[in-house]
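Please check this.
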Amino acid sequence: MSKRAVLIKRMSLAVFLTFLILSATNGYCATYYVSTTGDDNDDGLSQETAFRTIQKAADTVSAGDTVEVEAGTYTEAVSITTSGTYSNRIYFHAEEGAVIDAEDTRSYCIKLNNADYITIEGFECKNATGSGILLDIYANGNIITSNISHDNTDTGIKLNDSSYNQIISNTLYNNAGGSNAWGNRTCGIYVFAYSQYCTIQDNIVYDNQTGIWLECGSSYNSIEDNRSYSNTYNGFLFSESSYNYIENNISYENGSLGVGFGYSANYNSFKNNTVYGNYTTGVQLNVNSQNNIIKNNNIIANGTTSSSNRGILIESGSSADIDYNNVWNNGLNGGYNYGGVASAGAHDISANPLFKSTDPEEEDDYLKLSSKNNGDDNNSPCIDAGDPEDTPSAGSEPVIDMGAYDLYTMDGATVTYYVSPDGDDNDDGLSEETAFETITAAVNAVSPGDTVIVLPGTYEEAVFISNSGNQNTPTVFKAQGEAIIDAEDTRAYCIKLDNA
């Protein structure tokens, strides 16, 4: 079963809508073009009259407008101060090969300064003296997706007092600086200062000082499906940040902790993650971090060079509900799975998880559970070994697994449907070639755990969704590129979730 529990505004939402650009088009939205051969004195309204700088486009746009940035290197720091609206986002889209280079002289590549409802997609950002992409002071409701941010002195992506944002499918690496495991703030993704109700999902984060860090009141966020590895210090840190939902992430081969909770990081839910091969402790709670949940995780082979390292270490004054985890082979010679005030939960196990592969180069199999149903020689002891209450329908079969990559989805129990303006609702929707024509047709076909891929184009309909997913198997609606639902000023909504 898929274990995505997605937070947009509430963590219990069981239908996931992402990347979908909702537009009640008023007919006045413009598309501007930027090219390295352009001219800021032109109007930017065609490729032939493109602007020279992205900043000129940012200074020109209004709600609902789109900026198309052609391939090439742009030596500038782009400050975006104009907001879109909930129904008319401003969309900055980069062609493959579009690079913003701060040349180690500018503090950011892209900055959203008190700007809302902006989508930033497809940029490579590098060499900033601060952050590659910065959401600064009440930059809310933005989508930062499919960008690469690297070799910045501070962070790849930073959120500062900015909420309801989606940071999805970005790659962050070589963002470096700082000096120690808890003290440096140089990260792949840094969520800071009461940045709340954000979704941090499907990001790849490596070779930074710390991978992903939430701090200083950054609470009620959803951190899921991220891979954080080979960072100098920690995979994930949560300090003074509470009520976060942390699920289906992988933290491996980091130079210090796999995951750390500290300085009153309370009431966080840490479920169905895999923490493997980190240099010191797998999961650590310290400095009065209380009432956290640690369930359904694989915490394997961390800190095997020292008896002071543990799989789970909880220092005095901190607390967690620990249960249904596989905690195995941690600490010196694999003999130190729990430490401090931590002890095994009633349903914890300690067994070789029988991963299909522990070689990161074998990405399709890495840290995934062996299953005879998938043609493997053995069944992992983690299959169907999680908390039955976390199964989509409590008491049903199969029970949720321990760790990331639940096998229910891998065994093919869920379906992906496709929607295209060139499709046909009489087809089966199971491929791009046999896609549905309307999103409504896909809504009528889905079951919990299914995914709907909406291909680029304009869909003139009102999408009514009343069939629910589940907390652990939500229905996912995901748009590729610029998918627009146009209500044409004749419909009351673009998407309506009715008790779904």
